Structure formats: structure tokens, C-alpha cells
Amino acid sequence: MVFSFQGFANALKWAKEMKEMEEELNDKLTFLGGFVAALRDHIHTDIQIKPGNLYTCTWSFTARSSIFKNMLDSDGCKAPPNDTITLPELNYEELESLLEFLHSGSLPKEKVEKHIYSLSITADKYDIPFLQKFCEHQMLGSLNSSSALDVLEISDVCSNQTLKETALNFIVKNMEDIVFSARFEAFALQNPHLTVQITRASFMDIKNRRNGI
């Protein structure tokens, strides 16, 4: 019976993973498929993106984000190739990674690790759903004692409740490693409201364990 139950549990886990992979693939196909509509509407003028001297096609922005589309439409960017748009919250490398993602729907591992937090905030600010899901998936998949506070902070900025609950639960279960880390003191000073939430979640966890919940 033990082996049978374990086999059933493994089958359920496999089915869940396959469903998640299918959903991720469908989301990516939809994301990349936005180019078709953009090309149909003849939105293809080159524009300059700042900071730096990076150029991209207008449709790589308009097909990905309704906010970008509104920004470009309001600026009359179906126009000369010397038109520019500035994303002041990003540095050159972050902007380069954003453009790469907008074109391909993915990023190399080293760029994900380096820019995941800034890209997550950008995805939230400019409403790029597939990038939001991509960043969430990456942060959840690499969640550990070193990254948990950063993930919690980003989840709060982006109002991502799923990410926030997962990060909080992880922190509560690894309180000693995280609370006594060098990062925690700076985090507590910058995010007093999140520190209160961590404290409350920790006390609730202790209470539940005492009550056998």
C-alpha cells in the first residue's frame, strides 16, 4: 500500500508539472504571437530606447504591453526613426535584458539571476503579463534563505499575493537563518511593515504548531 500510494502521489505531481509546462508554453506562444497583430497593423518603425543607444521596432513594445502602446501612440511614434522613449528606472544592462525578453520570450540564466528583481518591477509597472509570470516562476524556483527577503520585498512592491505568501511561509520556516543574517537588519529598517508581517506570521506558526494544526 505504501508503494502504491507513493506511486499515485508521484503520478499526481507529474501531471501537475505537465499541466504547468503546457500552460507556460501556451502563454509563451500567445506572447510571441503578438507580433502577428503588430505586423498586420504596420507598427514597425524603429525607435530609440534610453538609457543608452538601443534601438528596437515599435511593434516589439506595442505587442507586449498596452501601456507601452499607449505611450507610443500618444507620442506619435508611428513616425521618424529618431523618436525615443525613456525608461528611467532601468540601467543599460537591465534595459538590454528587457528588450531581449520582449523579442524572444526568454533570457539566459545569468541575466535572469542578475536582473530578475528589476525586470519584475518593470513587468508590473508596464503591465507585461508574460514577463510577470516568468519572473514569478523564476523567483519561486530559486527561493532560498539568501533571496527570501528580496522576493518578499518585490512581491509587496508588485502586489503579488501568491509570491508574497510563499516568501512569508519560507521565511517563517527558516527564521533563524534569515533573521540573524546581515541582510535582515537593513531590510527591517527599509520595510517596517513587512517586518511586522513576518513577526505576526511567525507567532501564528508557533501557535498553530502548539495547537497541532
From TrEMBL:
Pfam families, A to Z: BTB
* Pathways per UniProt: Protein modification; protein ubiquitination
Alphabetical list of SMART domains matching this protein: BTB
Source organism's superkingdom?
Eukaryota
Q: Sorted alphabetically, which InterPro entries does this protein's record hold?
A: At1g01640-like, BTB/POZ_dom, SKP1/BTB/POZ_sf
The UniProt record lists the BTB domain at 61-111
**Function according to Swiss-Prot or TrEMBL:** May act as a substrate-specific adapter of an E3 ubiquitin-protein ligase complex (CUL3-RBX1-BTB) which mediates the ubiquitination and subsequent proteasomal degradation of target proteins.
What is the recorded name of this protein?
BTB domain-containing protein
The root-end lineage is:
Eukaryota, Viridiplantae, Streptophyta, Embryophyta, Tracheophyta
